[in-house]
Amino acid sequence: MNTTKLVETAQAMVAPGKGILAADEGSATAQQRFDSIKVPCTEDNRRAYRELLLTTPGMEEFISGVILFDETVRQSTSEGLPFPELLAGKGVVPGIKVDTGPHPLAGFPGETVTEGLDGLRDQVGEYVSLGARFAKWRAVIRVDEQAGVPSHTCIDTNAHALARYAAICQEVGLVPIVEPEVLMEGSHDLCSCEAITEQVLRHVFAVLGEHRVLLEGIILKPSMVIPGKQSPNLATVEQVAEATVRCFRRTVPAAVPGIAFLSGGQSPEEATAHLSAMNVLGDVPWELSFSYGRALQAPVLKAWSGKAENAEAAQRAFHLRAQLNSSARTGLYRADMESAEAA
């Protein structure tokens, strides 16, 4: 295991002022996003849309890495340049999603465990040959307080899967993104989300240690501490930021180079505002960054609408969203920048 290379790559992924684009949508998610703009979800359309994103002029000023899907990592631009080579040429780190998604956890109705460990070592070896330098694995933690969810078994099973995945990735030279997501679906309030997130993170890092995972060579991609979508108790941007930073100070070792938050169903504006408020608080040992999918892409899809003549407008939308999140990385984002920059 080349620890120096792992550490260098991880640090590049959370470089100051930059964040990660999650473009690793599987078939079902891609279908939903294309359906939202009434565009057929064909391979050609998916490739054209991804090329639009990845060839956006200046995106490398704000984007440090891109998570690709198995289909995408094998695709090329219309001129025949493989997407991983395109990204590397821009100084952007290519990555790959390697899990096969959440599956029902036997004996625990409503809970899941993420699968994909079988054959993973050979699989990630192939991805390295295709140009990938980091990987991603998402664990899904659902909250239903009345049903006693999440159970300890669910948290433990997913933590062990994350740790085994991370150890395999590091062994073959990929930086693992460790993604334990506490879902926003539910009626839990801010305090409950903080307590559950703390429980999840404590266990994940304990098991990562047991599996001898090099913490300096990982990136943590967690959900923010935020009330469930059905909660009657809302939280301000400042309350979310304070609860999230407090929770992570208690649970995330200083050796971890960076925390790249997922947006988790927030609007683009909410995700950016929350990240900025966290960075305003400061005094943390890790970079507080972003790894957004929908929160970066929603305005792009709307602007593009599957029409080649809209490509430039769509790229402007992506550039703007990336730039605003770059501002959030230093706590300088303001809501009025949305309209001012767009104008």
Provide a quick synopsis of the model.
The protein is an alpha/beta fold and 343 residues long.
Mean pLDDT: 96
Q: Percent range for helical residues?
A: 40-55%
Strand percentage lies at 5-15%
Shape, principal axes of CA atoms: globular
Helix/strand/pairing category: alpha/beta
Stretches where pLDDT is under 50 for at least 5 consecutive residues are none
Rg for CA atoms: 19 Å
| Total count of helical runs of at least 4 residues | 13
Query: What is the H-and-E element order?
Result: HEHHEHHEEEHEHEHEHEHEHHH
Strands, total number: 10
- The N- to C-terminal Cα distance equals 49 Å
The largest sheet has its strands arranged as: 8-7-6-3-2-1-10-9
Main sheet overview: 8 strands, parallel
